[in-house]
Every structure is written in structure tokens, then in C-alpha cells.
User: Fold this.
Amino acid sequence: MNAPSGPPVPLLTYVYAVTPPAPAVRRLLPGLTGVSGRPVTLLHPPGGDPGPVAFAISDVPRPEWDEDALKSRFEDLGWLEEAARRHHRVVEALAAHTTVLPLRLATLYEDHAAALAALRQRGQDFATLLGRLGGHTEYGVKVYVRPAPAPDPGAPPAGASPGRAYLQARRSQRHAHEDHHRQAGLAGERVAAVARRFTTDRVSHPAQNGPLTAASPEENVLNDAYLVADAQAEAFLSALAGAARGLPGVRVEVTGPWAPYSFAVPPPPPGAP
Assistant:
């Protein structure tokens, strides 16, 4: 005799993205696995006409995803990296077939009814934003300042005391550091000039200088996201290739193409806090 299975595990509704309920998306979903190894499905208002937008969701175990659990899990970098990778994999798979509005990691609702209520409330905003983002892709552009050479610990020049030689070396390092920052400003101006020609929108993110970048000797001073029409993408990337030319203290990094994470949040509804 089989042992009793016990009460069902309570669930939360995890939302990856807003997407049109298109046939291509429906065909894709049966092969998708999301966070916690859960299948991905579409959620939209019931009835013959699902409307212009739907949520791509997974039903996840509440004990693993409720507020108390996430407080500790978000401090576990291994868990966080795996969850982010699975979330991103679902979004990118959808974005390969249609325009999507990616939602943040751990966007959760109490149940399907609560998620549907949010979808109904913001459905028109979502549909408008999907229309604006259609035929566009996000690219990231970061500018890094290379570290200035450390003071030479070798023997001081003839006639100079060790202390005086060290102070001169430190002054030289500071001047080099300031020069690298000036070069980074020039690189940022070049990026902005390219963006004015080829991009539709821009979001400026905070520079990435936290614990996850502590191992890098470079300093991130610009971290922008650009929305680029697909027809302009090749020209945009080609023009950016020279942004750091002649600036040895600077590195420019371009990432993408991405689903439009930075441009996916519609304006708040009237009267919302």
C-alpha cells in the first residue's frame, strides 16, 4: 500500500514576463523549464479572446519563495545566480519568438487570481509598451577606468631621499588616475554622440562597483542601456567600436543583444503611490 502523500504544497505564482499569447509562444512553452525546475505556462483572462497580453508564469513552492525564504536566499550568491540564469533563460527563449516585457527576478503573486487582477489592471499599459518595443533590442554600454600604475618601489633617483621619491611616485600615480578619468569622460561623450544617431531610448544604471565586482581592478564609471531599432543595430555597434580609440586608460564594453529589461516597466497608473 502506498503511503499517504500528505497535504499539497502551497504555491505562489512566479511571473517572468509579459508576452502576447501568440501561437509561436504557445508552441514554445511545453519545452521550457523555469525557476525551481517548474514548467512555464501562459496565464491570461479566461474566455475565447485572451486579450493582447498574457503573463508567462510558473507555480512555485511557497516555502521556497515566500518573503521569509527570499530574505536568506538572496544572500546565497550560488542560489541567486542559478535563479537568475533560469529566469533569464525563459525570457530570452520568449524574446526569440516575440516582443516581451521582462519582469524582475522574483516577481511573485499570491495566486493566479491576484496575478490576473494585475494583468487586467495594467493590460492596456502593457500592450502599449509592447507595441513601442516591437522591432527593438536592448544593448548595454559600460565604460571602465583602468588602474593607474602603482608607485615603483625600486631605488630612488640619485640625490632623492626614499621618502621624497615615494611622494613623487604617488603624485605621478594620482595624476595618471585623474588623466584616466578625463579619458573616460571623453569616451562617455563619444558614446553619447553615437547614441544620439542610432538609439531610441536610454536608461542610465548605477555604476557597478559593489561586492560582485571587487575582484576587478577596473572602475566602472558609466553603465547605460540603449534601446536600438533592429534595423540600426549593426550601424550602432560599428560606430561604438571606436569609442575608446586613442584612450589607453579606458575600456568600453558593449553587451547584448538583450530582451528590453531596462525599458519594460510601464508608467505607474494614475494615483498610484
